[in-house]
Amino acid sequence: MRQWRIIAKEAMARASIIGKFLCLLHVTDAYVLSSNHVLGPSMLPTLNITGDVVLVEHLSHRLGKLGSGDLVLVRSPLDPKKTLTKRIVAMEGDKVTFSLDPTRSHSSRSLVVPKGHVWIQGDNLYVSRDSRHFGPLPYGLIEGKVFMRVWPPSSFGLLGE
Amino acid sequence: MRQWRIIAKEAMARASIIGKFLCLLHVTDAYILSSNHVLGPSMLPTLNITGDVVLVEHLSHRLGKLGSGDLVLVRSPLDPKKTLTKRIVAMEGDKVTFSLDPTRSHSSRSLVVPKGHVWIQGDNAYVSRDSRHFGPLPYGLIEGKAFMRVWPPSSFGLLGE
Lengths: 161, 161
Hints:
2 copies of one chain form a homodimer.
Chain A: H1 2-31, E1 33-38, E2 52-57, E3 71-75, E4 83-90, E5 95-98, E6 109-112, E7 117-121, H2 131-134, E8 137-138, E9 142-151, E10 157-158
Antiparallel strand pairs in A: 1-2, 2-9, 3-4, 3-9, 4-7, 5-6, 7-8, 9-10
């Protein structure tokens, strides 16, 4: 009987160390710095279609220090389980002019980005589904700012405009 | 010199215990259960104008188990620093009929809630600013479901419809 109690006590101690570590890892990952695997054609040529590993910082958007030209990770307004990587083209109050389908026509539309929202677009306008399709993005859906790429090694370096 | 080193070591040990505790407290608060102070007239008579303390669980919205009639805490699409407490009136795909200003006219409008969004309204339709003003709310802005009130003691008990 005492054997089991000693084993259980040691298991609890180890589980609590693992628990504390995961806790700290998560808080760092969600509020300070994380690495994310991003893929898809919507950000060509900035990001590769087959996938890159980027470093994302989670401080700027909480401090209100985001601006046009920043690459951001956002939660999709169409599917809350998905995360998108796009570029902020306009902040709240800015006027944005965009063309819905550059291959089909030269016509463009303009609007002012409402309060509490940003306008995001993929660098590859031909295949990206972004604010031109689902409208201005509420600022609260922004999760972090992509500032650096670490994989593949040939493209290692800072990102930005 | 050795005195300082001993003091510094003990300070570090205590700081790390406090750090681990805050970490665990935050993860519980953000992902499982939290208590929130909510106030304002937009949810009368369900919630008091001077403020209530409610328990909010953060599991249902991640598991997709929210539905019409649930009281939810959401991040405001107009001001990302603010959190609102409203009721889900319609889920994605549902048709919602609403009247913008019940005091002024009997006219009402209808629309279908788009994919990835919900329609929220305050119980006090006369003073609440909600989806009737800022449109359907992206599901990703939902932070938790308020299920119980713990203060004031006279209104202690489960919330819901």
